[in-house]
Fold this protein.
Amino acid sequence: MAERQRKSWLDGAVGYEIYTRSFMDSSGDGFGDLAGIADRLDYLAWLGIDIVWLTPIYPSPDHDHGYDVADYKAVRAEHGTVADVEALLEKAHSLDLKVLLDIVPNHTSSEHEWFKTALADPSSPERAMYLFRDPAPDGGPPNNWISHFGGPAWTLDASSGQYYCHLFLPEQPDLDWRNPAVLDAFDDIYRFWFERGVDGFRIDVAHGLLKHPSFADNPKVREAGEGSGPLAKFFAFDHKFDMDQDDNVQIFARWQAIADNYDATLVAESGVTDHRRLARYVGPDALDLSFFLKPGWMTWEPAEIVAEHLSLADVEPNGISWVISNHDQPRPVSRFTRNEPDTSRGLDRSLAVTTLQMILGGVPFLYYGEELGLGDAIIDPAAREDPVATRNDTDGGEARDVARSPMPWDTSARNGFTTGTPWIASADRESAETVETQKNDPASAVHRYRQLLAVRRSFPDMHSGTYERLDAPTAEVAVIRRDSVLVIANLSTETVSVSAAGDQWQVEFLSAAGEVESEGGTITVSPELSVVLSATS
Ligand code: GLC
């Protein structure tokens, strides 16, 4: 088979995740919509974004905020219509922006017609699209698998006496990816959207698709600890039999071949943390890109953050979508200053890591509001929406609502997100956190992010030059060179000196107010500062 060509439009591109329901509401129902997004694409083009990814837009009973899809070939009324998708694509393409949708193949909604038929008629072909299994000899669930969101990964279908598998909520039954009918159905869904001009997809829970045919118990590797939430309980197991199966890659290759016919891209959401395992998700026989989620989970641990980035980039310097933020985690400005009295370092630390990511290749993504330096939203515990919080008796530490509040556009009521009542109740943001105020302040976060993206664009070596890792003075510092561009990420609390002999270096970008001196082949960088330099000779 001829090797796949890398898509030229991915070279140097930067992505932006839009949490669809919270970005911009044009209709006044308190719910973000496609027309609202289309209206704000100019802002993203101004910022320097190339690709936008929209979280699910499909009809959904909303048990997991749209990640429970009832119909993959339609649009939820609150978000708009298929015609609105087409209008959004047209506007995006006129601004040189590409648009990715979010596909959810691991599971459907329990309200999907397939699952309704599967329950109603155990002899139907739809039944075989899901993972129904007989009980264990004691009448309990078939094995010890548990759900990410609490409780067993099995729910009893009382009318047939069988259990069905769900790695998330009972309202999110898992599909059987060993059934060819499931593969065919999704090929058709991809084509439906590609025919309408969609530029690609983010693939939800890509690492979960296939389950091991043995359906054996997962080994328990640690105790989750008293009072721990559902995700901590989930990760107390080695997910040997329900996640990251070797043959998932064959499904990825099949999908990417379909996408390639449309010059479209696919990006895996993969929770895989092992760098070599993750590298299998991308490349000539797999997908264009995969997210690496771990930096989005971490608190401020400089040496670990550096190590996670550098060792993955050594293994895979082209196919990673780097992030420190998405809709499933507390925002990095808060996470990176957790348990510290002074939270003002959060933005500088976030931008220091993102600056490093910009030279690691692949397609880094920002999450809406990250460019404004937003910290976690203030949400009244009684008003929580996330099922991880509402269905579990935990302290709410794992609730994802804090990263899902309305985009603060301006200082009007509800920060200009809606004229109605937002779907999620959160405190309005301060003036300094809004797009309107920041656009007028050249020192604001949005201008700093914009400048970083502009520097990456004007120095193509920064993404496409030959990747070289240089010696760093400590484990909390990363030094990467790509031909004429050098990035020094000093995440430590000390001023450090790096030797980069043989060239004159000019400073192009500083992630924060700080100092950089370049003299006689030695570059000195002040604490918690990343710097982009270009060779002038
Ligand atoms: C992914 C999504 C998350 C969702 C889950 C189940 O991890 O990012 O929001 O709850 O999959 O679909």
